[in-house]
Amino acid sequence: MIELHVFKEENASELISKIKNNRELLQFAGPAYHFPLTKEQLESDLENENRLMFRVFDTTEQKAIGHAQIFLKDETFLLGRILLWDENNRGKGYGKKIVRELLQYGFRQFDRETAELNVYDWNTGAIECYKKVGFEIDPDVMSEVSIDNELWLSINMKISKNTFESGNI
């Protein structure tokens, strides 16, 4: 069972310790943060009233297993900075559970009809996870970022409140 616990300043060092290099940070957070991740960067997000930060907590194991955020935008809310700390937990359905919890929280708390997220096009495991929850790619919204002489393409995915609540996924 997965629960979202409010991320607090004292959780910063735990999250920072999980980000090993510039590529991991870019995959996790996009270009907004710079390596090494610091408490100051996280504090700036904590102070942003439009950003909610969570520790992902596994109630069965009784431990934090990851991190996730919701960013409130004018028309939608954006899921982001979703990270499972242990690579051995990837591909086991945790991602779907986390995304569902975030959507449930977001649609319950905010008057928005759509949620969205951004993901790098090479991250096929994450894209498939998001599709299984009901997200669809928005071909009109993309961006690029450069790292280590590579170009990473970020694609946008959206889900409507009706699609999520119908549960036909």
What characteristic shape results from the CA principal axes? globular
Broad structural category: alpha+beta
Helix proportion of residues, in percent? 25-40%
Give the overall average pLDDT: 93
Total strand count, please? 7
Helix run count: 6
Task: Tell me the distance between the termini.
Answer: 19 Å
Q: The biggest beta sheet, please?
A: 7 strands, mixed
Q: What is Rg?
A: 15 Å
Order of helices and strands: EHHHEEEHEHEEH
Strand content: 35-45%
Main β-sheet, spatial strand arrangement:
1-2-3-4-5-7-6
Unreliable stretches, pLDDT < 50, 5 or more residues? Answer: none
Features:
single chain; 169 residues; alpha+beta; 6 helices; 7 strands; 37% strand; globular
What do these coordinates show?
It contains six helices and seven strands. With 169 residues, it is α+β, with helices and mostly antiparallel strands. A seven-stranded mixed β-sheet has the order 1-2-3-4-5-7-6. The protein is globular, with a radius of gyration of 15 Å. The two termini are 19 Å apart.
